[in-house]
Amino acid sequence: MRTFFGLTSDYMENVYEQFFYMKYTGNWSLAELYSLPIGLRNWFVQRTVKQKEKEIEEQQKSSRNQQAPQHSNRRA
After folding, report:
1. Could you give the C-alpha distances from 15 to 41, 43, 55, in angstroms and in order?
2. Going by C-beta distance under 8 Å and a sequence separation of 6 or more, which residues neighbour residue 8?
3. Which pLDDT value is given to residue 5?
4. Does 69 fall in a domain?
5. H or E stretch including 13?
6. Is 68 inside any structural domain?
7. Measured distance CA(27)–CA(45) in Å, rounded
8. Do residues 1 and 8 make contact, with C-beta atoms less than 8 angstroms apart?
9. For the chain, what percent of residues have pLDDT higher than 70?
10. Is the pLDDT at 76 greater than 70, yes or no?
11. 17 part of a folded domain
12. What is the phi-psi region of residue 6: left when phi exceeds 0, alpha when psi lies from -120 to 50, beta otherwise?
């Protein structure tokens, strides 16, 4: 629902989701998040998501390498 003054509830839910994500992953304070310009806040969220995806990918790669059977170069 859009009001004459103010922001839509969907927009505010998105803002609160960003706040939760930044507090959860980066321990930002609400005061810091409220005072960030919108563009900078969006950049931090997108960059944090990118970093987390990279970390997950590296963990999965490492896990696959550890699970791969170790072949011995010795001949019987």
Report:
1. 10, 13, 25
2. 1, 2
3. 75
4. no
5. helix 9-26
6. no
7. 13
8. yes
9. 83
10. no
11. yes
12. left
44's CB contacts (< 8 A; 6+ apart) are 22, 26, 36
Task: Give the number of domains in the chain.
Answer: 1
Average pLDDT score, the chain: 88
Q: For the segment 8-44, what is each residue's pLDDT rounded down to a tens digit?
A: 999 999 999 999 999 999 989 999 999 999 999 999 9
Determine contact, residues 8/2, Cβ cutoff 8 Å.
Answer: yes
The answer to whether residue 22 sits within a structural domain is yes
d(CA 8, CA 72): 63
Q: State how far Cα 11 lies from the chain centre.
A: 19
- Count Cα atoms within 13 angstroms, Cβ side, for 8: 5
Residue type at 43? W
Find the domain containing 43 and state its range. 9-55
